[in-house]
Amino acid sequence: MKAAILDRYDKNGAALAVRDIPTPEPGAHEVLVRVHTAAVNPLDNMVIRGDVRLIVPYRTPLVMGNEFSGTVVRAGAAAGRFKSGDRVYGRMPLAKIGAFAEYAAVDESALAHVPGYLSMEEAACVPLTALTALQALELMEARPGQKLFISGGTGSLGAMAIPIAARMGLTVATNGSAQNEQRVRSLGASVFLDYKTQRYVDELHDMDCVLDTLGERELPDEFAVLKPGGHLVSLRGVPNGRFARREGLPTLKRALFGLAGRKLDKMAARKGQTYDFIFVHEDGTQLARVAELFPAERPLAVSIDGTYGLDQVNDALERVRSGHSQGKTLLRIDEA
C-alpha cells in the first residue's frame, strides 16, 4: 500500500515521502480500515517539527496522519463492534497514528460509525475537533445553563465547539473578525465580540468556563473574565502537572511539566480557578455522541477548504501551515 512517511523530525518542516509499505495486519482488538479520506491538521505539522515529542515520542520512520474516515475491511479475532463494509471515522490512537495511508489497523475503541447524513469527506473533518470540544467540556465539568467563552472561536475548532456546547445547553460567547459574526451566531454563539473594536476582557465577566485557542499571551485576560472557581482549558498554553498526571506520564515528565506550568497554576489559584492543558486522545464512545447531539433532522455542518491526492500531501501540509485554510484540508486517499 502507499503511505506518506516522515523519515526525520525537522523544526523547519520536513517533506513527507510517499512510498509503498506492507499493508498492516489488524491485531486482536483492531480492525483493518481502507482509508477513504484523511484530514490534514496543524497537529500534523507539529508532529513533523517535533513539537509534541515530550508528550508522544514517535519513532521515525513514521506513517503520518491523525484523523480519517474509511470502510472496515476485516476485524481482528477479539474485535466485535464493527463488521466488513461499515463506514467508520476516528482520531488515530495517540500511540499509533497513520491515517495518511491506503489502509490502517486501528483499535476498535477509537472508532465510531459515520452518521448517515455525512459523506466520507465530511466525516473526515469531524474527529479531532469534535473530540477536542467534548474532552475540553468534560474537563471543565460544563453543565447546561453555564456560560462558556471560546477565545478566537471563528476557526475550525470553534466551528465544532460552538454547536456542541450550544446543543449541550451552554450559553456561548466568542470573539473574532466581524466578517464571521453571522456564521458564528448561526452555529449557536449567543455573544459575538469584534476583536478590532471590543476587548473581551472589558465586555465579559463571571464566565463559568473558558476554552483558550490563542495561547499563553491571552491567558491573563482569559482568567480575568472567568468567575472565581471557574475552569479554563487551553489548547495552546503550557502543559502542567495536572496534565502530566492525567495522562499518566513518567515521573520525570510530571516534574518537568509541573515546573513549566507553575506560573499558570498560580495564576489560576488566585481565585480558586483551575487551569488544564489538553492534548486530544482517541475515544470512539465520545465520538459516537456526535450522532446523538446532531441527529439527521438537526445535522452537523462542516466546512471543507480543499481536497488533495495522497501524492500531494506536502502541498496540503503547506496549505495548513500557511494559516490560510477556510475549513478542513483533506487528502482523498481511496480513489476507487
Could you explain the architecture of this structure?
30% of the residues lie in helices and 26% in strands. Strand 15, helix 12 and strand 16 form a beta-alpha-beta unit. The mean pLDDT is 95. The protein is of the alpha/beta class. Helix 3 packs across helix 4. Strands 3, 5, 6, 7, 8, 15 and 16 form a seven-stranded mixed β-sheet that branches. The chain has a six-stranded parallel β-sheet with strand order 11-10-9-12-13-14. A three-stranded antiparallel β-sheet has the order 2-1-4, with no helix packed on it. The protein has two domains: 156 residues, Alpha-Beta Complex (Quinone Oxidoreductase, Chain A, domain 1); 150 residues, 3-Layer(aba) Sandwich (Rossmann fold), CATH 3.40.50.
Structural key phrases:
336 residues, 30% helix, seven-stranded mixed beta sheet, six-stranded parallel beta sheet, single chain, alpha/beta, 2 domains, Quinone Oxidoreductase, Chain A, domain 1, globular, Lipid_raft_assoc_Zn_ADH, Rossmann fold
- Top-tier CATH class of the largest domain: Alpha Beta
Rg result: 20 Å
Question: Ends: how far apart?
Answer: 14 Å
How much is the average pLDDT?
A: 95
What portion of the residues fall into strands of 2 or more residues? 25-35%
The topology string of helices and strands comes to: EEEHEEEEEHHEHEHEHEHEHHHEHEHE
Structural class assignment: alpha/beta
Domain module tally: 2
| Low-pLDDT ranges | none
Largest sheet: 7 strands, mixed
CATH architecture descriptor text of the largest domain: Alpha-Beta Complex
InterPro entries: ADH-like_N, ER, GroES-like_sf, Lipid_raft_assoc_Zn_ADH, NAD(P)-bd_dom_sf
Organism: Parafannyhessea umbonata
Pfam families: ADH_N, ADH_zinc_N_2
Domain Enoyl reductase (ER): 13-331
